[in-house]
Request: fold
Amino acid sequence: MTTHVEEAVQARIAAAKAKRAKRRQQREELDEARAHGLTARHAAKMRRWAEDDT
Reply:
């Protein structure tokens, strides 16, 4: 049988793990969006350079 304090500690640990997982997921999503944006900006830059050369 667990005590109230042990249950409270376990709840805090679970909440911290959930918060960490949520932050990790958000960071992954931001990294993916950033990579897409960098690729798009690079492509636009190359198009501008090609237009300037002609």
Q: What stands out?
A: The mean pLDDT is 95.
